[in-house]
Amino acid sequence: MILDEAQAIKNADSESAKAARLLRGRHRLVLSGTPIENHVGELWSLFEFLNPGMLGASRIAEGATAGSRPRPEVVALLARALRPFILRRTKEAVAPELPPKHEETILCELEPGQRRLYQELREHYRASLLGRIEEQGLAKVKLHVLEALLRLRQAACHPGLIDGKRAKEPSAKLEVLLPRLLELREEGHKALVFSQFTSFLALVRTALDAAQVSYEYLDGKTRDREKHVARFQTDPDCGLFLISLKAGGVGLNLTAADYVFVLDPWWNPAVEAQAVDRAHRIGQDKRVFVYRLLAKETVEEKVAVLQAAKRGLAESIITGDNSLLRDLDRETLEALLG
């Protein structure tokens, strides 16, 4: 039995994971580019399929599957225990012939109206959330925290994501993105544009339609993905592919593109990296340029700083335990809302 894209069973309680564990086979193999997407406990689910009971029968599993970050000594012990069962091949080892990838962050200065909306939201959530945390504790208001961070991230992208009536207002990110896309089109390049917000991609589509620019589009509702991929890969007149970050993070080969734009940062850099690698993969013969758009002096910029500080924690096991949200505490929240 071979499971490809095995992170699909990372949640041990999901129907997919339960069904996989019911299958019978003498030999089992799992393949995954991101065996750890959010926390070390996801690896437990993969090994429960591979070698049932191997981790569940030891005290290591307690530190790996609990909601909190495992202690350093647990991480080290887990790494030693799993090493004989893992063959890790990095892209550099598998495809040394790949052209280099250039990555750059572009800080976008919010327009006055967009800045005012963002600051009003930030002040509202800062006042309401920190008071509730003081009274009830962080655990009881976690959902309100997630809603606040979502709204602030949307406001950093475009006012229209907060209020549909504001869809025609200026957006710092669109003003940075659109001229670059039109310039690349004139020069004959192809580009991928990722966002986790389909509502933001809809605004990009509206702008491209107005400029009479040909493009392809894919999100979680798209059917016949192969047809859309084939057109982008082969049609010289189709130079842009707008993709929902989560829907397009795996299973796509888009080597016709040599430019990638990530419009909003994902909490988990591993998912974002998977999306970028739709272009930077075996078969690519051009240098790939990756641009991440961050709204200056917003929660987006602060998330990027926090991710950079946490990125290497579980690299000692496989790829990294980068769940910012799971480890959120009051101090971190105050920094995000500051």
Structure commentary:
The protein folds into 2 domains: 2-87, Tandem AAA-ATPase domain (Rossmann fold, 3-Layer(aba) Sandwich); 101-337, P-loop containing nucleotide triphosphate hydrolases (Rossmann fold). Helix 10 (225-234) links the parallel strand 5 (216-218) and strand 6 (240-244). The strands form 2 sheets. It has a 6-stranded parallel β-sheet, sandwiched between helices. It has a two-stranded parallel ribbon with strand order 1-2. Residues 62-67 and 319-324 have low confidence and may be disordered. By secondary structure, the protein is an alpha/beta fold. The N and C termini lie far apart (50 Å). The protein has helices at 15-22, 41-50, 60-65, 72-82, 91-94, 112-136, 142-157, 172-186, 198-210, 225-234, 269-276, 299-310, 330-337; strands at residues 2-3, 29-30, 101-108, 191-195, 216-218, 240-244, 259-262, 288-295. The radius of gyration is 21 Å and the shape is globular.
Q: Could you give a short description of this structure?
A:
The chain is an alpha/beta fold. The chain has helices at 15-22, 41-50, 60-65, 72-82, 91-94, 112-136, 142-157, 172-186, 198-210, 225-234, 269-276, 299-310, 330-337, and strands spanning 2-3, 29-30, 101-108, 191-195, 216-218, 240-244, 259-262, 288-295.
The first-to-last residue Cα distance is 50 Å
State the domain count.
Answer: 2
The CATH level-2 architecture of the largest domain is identified as 3-Layer(aba) Sandwich
Task: Report strand %.
Answer: 5-15%
Order of helix and strand elements from N to C terminus:
EHEHHHHEHHHEHEHEEHEHH
Give the CATH topology of the largest domain: Rossmann fold
Overall mean pLDDT score?
84
User: Can you count the helices?
Assistant: 13
CATH superfamily of the largest domain: P-loop containing nucleotide triphosphate hydrolases
Shape: globular
What percentage of residues falls in helices of 4 or more residues? 40-55%
What's the gyration radius in Å? 21 Å
Low-confidence stretches are 62-67, 319-324
**Biggest beta sheet summary:** 6 strands, parallel
Query: Quick one: CATH class of the largest domain?
Result: Alpha Beta
Widest sheet: strand ordering: 3-8-7-4-6-5
Kindly name the structural category: alpha/beta
Number of strands: 8
